[in-house]
Amino acid sequence: MALFTKKIDDTDQTLDLKIPHHLAIIMDGNGRWAKKRLLNRVAGHKVGVDAVKKITIAAQAMGVEVLSLYAFSTENWSRPQDEVSFLMKLPISFFERFVPDLIANNVRMQAMGDLTALPVATQKAVADAVQATQKNTGMILNFALNYGGQADIIQATQSLVEQVKTGQLDASQIDQEHFEAALQTASLGDLANPDLVIRTSGEQRLSNFLTYQSAYSELYFTDTLWPDFDQQDLQKAIESYTKRDRRFGGLNVRK
Ligand code: FPP
């Protein structure tokens, strides 16, 4: 358990923060951030990427081991064409600028979701960033791109059915371990399930993010819009998480 001691007020009172091993964030509110400033929606996404950068570096410094960010959902394709097209191009310029920071901070990037549906240049930008950071040994930054929790469960089911059909697996052997090994988060092993899911912008739902994996996650909702979400907001979320009593269906289990 990573501990991060923080002075919480002007007194000498300190709180040992319990850092979530796997932190997942639903980055919401870019559009509203822009609208409040009479800007178009894409201006919100442009500022949203700066928050991605700041929060990645802050999370790594605090000792988070996996940071999963919901960047584009399987449902986001239904947005206006110009916004989808902007969001698809965003990773190309962003990763180019961001990779040196990832390397400097020993962060390893990976991506989950159906990447094959992304434009080829976007797929390449993602693959290049994954490749350039693959030797880093610090925090894993896991981008969800064209990801949906239900689609993840369906593709895992299809892959298990295929294994049963080819005789590699007997249907009676399918248990939690086999199922989890077929999900998009399998490479994260013990860290596949987020300990804490944060959603910005006041909405209180998971919107198809890590549906299976968040079964026992602690949830934290804040009214702060994603472009305004900063290190202090992250600390507040982690303070709230620190005070939670996670029981995983049992009695008073502190992890
Ligand atoms: C939700 O805000 C945000 C998104 C759907 C996109 C999130 C993407 C980023 C922050 C950019 C970083 C991603 C990469 C891969 C570089 P919204 O548009 O739904 O806001 P609204 O609810 O206020 O309309």
UniProtKB/TrEMBL annotation:
Per UniProt, substrate binds at: 29-33, 41, 45, 73-75, 77, 79, 199, 205-207
What the entry lists under PROSITE patterns is as follows: UPP_SYNTHASE
Q: Which cofactor does it need?
A: Mg(2+)
**Which keywords belong to this entry?**
Magnesium, Metal-binding, Transferase
Gene3D superfamilies under this entry?
Decaprenyl diphosphate synthase-like
What does the record's cofactor remark say about binding? Binds 2 magnesium ions per subunit.
Q: Where is the active site?
A: 28, 76 (proton acceptor)
Q: Quote any Pfam family the record assigns.
A: Prenyltransf
Q: Does the keyword Plastid apply?
A: no
So what EC number does this one have?
Answer: 2.5.1.-
A Gene Ontology molecular function term of the record: ditrans,polycis-undecaprenyl-diphosphate synthase [(2E,6E)-farnesyl-diphosphate specific] activity
Name the family: Belongs to the UPP synthase family.
Q: Which HAMAP family match?
A: ISPT
What does this chain do? Answer: Catalyzes the condensation of isopentenyl diphosphate (IPP) with allylic pyrophosphates generating different type of terpenoids.
Subunit architecture: Homodimer.
PANTHER family named among the record's database cross-references: DEHYDRODOLICHYL DIPHOSPHATE SYNTHASE 2 (PTHR10291:SF0), DEHYDRODOLICHYL DIPHOSPHATE SYNTHASE FAMILY MEMBER (PTHR10291)
Protein name as catalogued: Isoprenyl transferase
Instruction: Give the species this sequence originates from.
Output: Convivina praedatoris
